[in-house]
Amino acid sequence: MDIEHIVLNITQADEITKTALVQELWSGYGEIKRYNLKGGTHPSVIVKHIHYPNQHKHPRGWNTNISHQRKLKSYQVERTWYQQYADKTNDHCRVPQSFHAVEVGDELLLIMEDLDTSGYPKRLNPDLVTLKDAKNCLSWLASFHAQFMNTKPDGLWTIGTYWHYDTRPDEWGKMQNLPLKKAAKGIDERLYNAQYQTLVHGDAKLANFCFSENGKVAAVDFQYVGGGCGIKDVAYFISSCFEESECEKYEKELLDHYFDQLELMLDKSIDFQLVKNEWLALYPYAWADFYRFLDGWSPGHWKMHDYSKRLTQKVIEELNQS
């Protein structure tokens, strides 16, 4: 695949002045690069180049066909997202716009807007993130969930999130927490049967948010976008930002902020209080759902702290009583 020719043709640029690796894709499935351009419609573009490896390599040893097929589907889902859904977002849930997608054989090219040159150049890690930064990301999630409330995930994952129970049988088989293993299907069913469903980002970690100088945020990486209960994104995002003590300390403040923003953004024909009541009750289930994945995927992971253990245990007890 002649990537440089495709980029020049799509952008109508005169030449590519520089290319830079942004990051390698997980498990050796390709890379993301920035192409700086002279002339044409854009000063630079981001190119996500997926090329399916013959030898699957995984940093934690998950080299199964199930894992491979999940990744293949995730890239097709991301392509569909950018082609059919991305333009339905707004300034409150900013995403890169898609310019072009090309698929040839076992290669897929996604050419998209460079958010750095669009005013979102900053990236944060948990050591640098402030409570205000986290709230800005939760505002993005609230707007995203409000925008896509009751949207059918056609062409996306029927149930979003990369750790979804049905797509992780290998990890379920290796779980060490047997009461949680037994409860896993029940947890999944509670989330699946929520009355209020939206599209979830599916990998809404801090690393997938880009920040402007004035605090506005945009999000990237839509491989696991799909249907679901929005509180799953919220719990997962909080887990990506804060250590145990901070999760405990800021729980109410962060959830209050998210739901305040959701109320502002939600269509008035939808009963916000019913959404809030249901999703708040499912917050521990969202934590337990992700904890279930970690227990099989990476026992001892730093996110398996006492806060997440406590919420998970609460859920197990509730399911046992019912």
Describe the overall structure.
The protein has 322 residues and is an alpha+beta fold. The protein folds into 2 domains: 3-113, Phosphorylase Kinase, domain 1 (2-Layer Sandwich), CATH 3.30.200.20; 131-321, Aminoglycoside phosphotransferase (APH), C-terminal lobe (Aminoglycoside 3'-phosphotransferase, Chain: A, domain 2). Helix content is 44%, strand content 16%. The protein is built from 9 helices and 9 strands. The chain has helices at residues 3-11, 65-85, 131-147, 169-173, 178-192, 231-241, 244-265, 272-297, 306-321, and strands at 15-24, 30-38, 44-51, 98-104, 107-113, 198-200, 209-211, 217-219, 226-228. It has a 5-stranded antiparallel β-sheet with strand order 1-2-3-5-4. A two-stranded antiparallel ribbon has the order 6-9. A hairpin with a 5-residue loop joins strand 2 and strand 3.
